[in-house]
Amino acid sequence: MTPADILTSLFPAGHDVTTSGALLRGTAHLDGGGVVHVLGIVDGAFPGVDEAVEVAGDVLAIAARDDASPILFLLDSGSQRMSRRDELLGLSETLAHLAKALHDASHSGHRTIALLYGGTAAGAFIATALACDTLVALPGAHPAVMDLPSMARVTKLPLAVLEAKAETTPVFAPGLDNIVATGGIVAVWDPNQPLAGSFTALLAAPPAGDSRATLGAERGGRPKAAAIAAEVERLALAHG
Fold first, then answer.
1. Quick one: 18 exposed, middle or buried, by C-beta within 10 A (0-12, 13-18, 19+)?
2. Residues 11-54: pLDDT tens digits?
3. Is-above-0.90 flag for pTM?
4. Where does the chain have alpha helices with state H?
5. Distance between CA 68 and CA 190 in Å, rounded?
């Protein structure tokens, strides 16, 4: 689906979302009333410093509003743009700024929901989709925190070893099914049904907080994270 198709399916009551380069921004209307702020990085763009700062500015402007309207973040990107210019200008810091802006918006009463319909990877994935309260996806999305060849270079493990581990351990593997199994993606929506229904149902459910570790345990993709986090919290409180 294209962004236009997705927006039409999500918001039959209409929207005024526009595209500027690879960035989306605007507002949309819910059938039952209410406004949704829409942002996005599309067309497989590789966001760098300029895009991160611009999107963060949009998010902070929304966070300053008192309408408590949710933010929907549409995403189809590459990884972050690791050019010499972007690195020298502080790419990691600006991506962190974007992630913190989304966190600030959430704590200011604007629920943040990311909809992944294409690709995304590495820092661009972490600073946008994974920084939102909730991440959902459409079939065909292809997320990757790190691809296996890059992981091999970082860990110094042979690629064949990582490929073998990825067959049975979702945390070692990119791809939609694996990110779902680890709990990173809450649900995969059916594009053959009006997306408005799925979105309305999501908004109607009370925010569950960060449930990724719990979902990962339930789905078998990250069996230990939730238990370890709970034990660390218990020990910290016991010695506080």
1. exposed
2. 999 999 999 999 999 999 998 889 999 999 999 999 999 999 99
3. yes
4. 3-10, 49-63, 84-88, 91-107, 122-127, 148-155, 159-166, 176-181, 195-204, 212-219, 225-238
5. 27
